[in-house]
Amino acid sequence: MFQKINIGSLPKGQRNTICDVPGVKVGHVTLSDGDCQTGVTAITTHNENAFNLRTRAASHVFNGFGKSVGLVQVEELGELETPILLTNTLSVGAVSEGLIQHTLAETPDIDFVMGTINPVVFECNDAFLNKISALYVRPNHALEAISAVSEEFEQGAVGAGRGMSCYGLKGGIGSASRQVKLGNKEYHVGALVLSNMGRMPDFTLAGRHIGPQIEEKLARDESGPEKGSIIMIVGTDLPLSERQLKRVARRTSVGLARTGSFLGHGSGDIALAFTTADPVDIKSRKRTHSVEQMDERRIDRVFRAAAEATEEAIVNSMLNAERVTGRDGNTRYALGDFGELMGDANE
């Protein structure tokens, strides 16, 4: 669909998703029935035990109108010890419970040795299309999403993105990737977003400000305050330190701004970046560790890759979403419903 839309200048990965990063997989559970329009999305960073072999990571909160869990410890230790799960705002507790159950089943000695787990769960508010107070998402849905992870996954109105809105249209799950060469080796930077933000009049598609045209086509005023959120996950196999990952996480705001968002007062805008390079083996008995780190003077291309992949992931979350009608008959049109306004986005 709309293959002429190109964003940025760096080469895309083979799949053009976050799963171009070796070892990364994504899975969904989608709940769609009347006023139930919601779900869970899971991201796993490698095929080993996530608790015992931890992924280096860093997060950045651009605007803190969010209810995520696990970020305090990620900020302190620079590690992920569970998969990353996405859902709606009022289901964070249920999904956290499911993620804890998964980790305990995978690593039963936690109960005797560690006694603690740091589940990482992000959220956006899908209440326009989903009766969020009904608490449709339960712990078992988190387990099902983790069990469904694959290198191939759907985008758009699926999983946690089922009930989300983006620039007054249908949003949801989107992903994209870029290739980055370091010496003679090819690496990847991939982004996955849960898009639920923006005002229609601000929407910009690959440099074309088409939001006002869509607003005119719908014949309704969409000029209210920006209320929504976006979760932006960046994965890479580049050897980056936790401090460098935080710098990469911040560059997602460049891609977000290019689509028209200004990170409004009521928006929860959060990014997390991780690398699959040099995982942390907590069972190691070594007293010191040697860790490879990218020369910071070469990092500009990584910043560009994160910005481009994030922008395209947001666009892909909209291009791959269909029109959805949910609670109280509320409807979000899809970007594809306005194909005649898009044309070639590179014109």
Task: Characterise this structure.
The chain is α+β, with helices and mostly antiparallel strands and 347 residues long. It is built from nine helices and 14 strands. The strands form four sheets. Strands 4-3-12-11-10-9 form a six-stranded mixed sheet, sandwiched between helices. The two termini are 17 Å apart. 53% of the residues are buried. The model has no long low-confidence stretch (mean pLDDT 93). Pfam families: Peptidase_S58. GO terms for molecular function: aminopeptidase activity. Keywords: Aminopeptidase, Hydrolase, Protease. This is D-aminopeptidase.
Task: Give the SSE layout.
Elements lengths: L24 E9 L2 E9 L8 E12 L6 H7 L1 E2 L3 E5 L3 H15 L3 H4 L6 E5 L14 H9 L17 E2 L2 E2 L1 E11 L2 E12 L14 H8 L8 E10 L5 H9 L1 H7 L7 E16 L18 H20 L4 E2 L5 E2 L6 H4 L5
Parallel strand pairs: 5-6, 11-12
Antiparallel strand pairs: 1-2, 2-5, 3-4, 3-12, 7-8, 9-10, 10-11, 13-14
Cα distance, first to last residue?
17 Å
Quickly give the CATH architecture. 4-Layer Sandwich
Poorly predicted spans: none
- How do the strands of the widest beta sheet line up side by side? 4-3-12-11-10-9
The proportion of residues in beta strands is 25-35%
For the record, the CATH class is Alpha Beta
CATH homology group: L-amino peptidase D-ALA esterase/amidase
Q: Shape, please?
A: globular
Task: Give me the number of helical elements.
Answer: 9
Query: Roughly what percent helix?
Result: 10-25%
Keywords: Aminopeptidase, Hydrolase, Protease
Organism: Pseudovibrio denitrificans
Protein name: D-aminopeptidase
Family: Belongs to the peptidase S58 family.
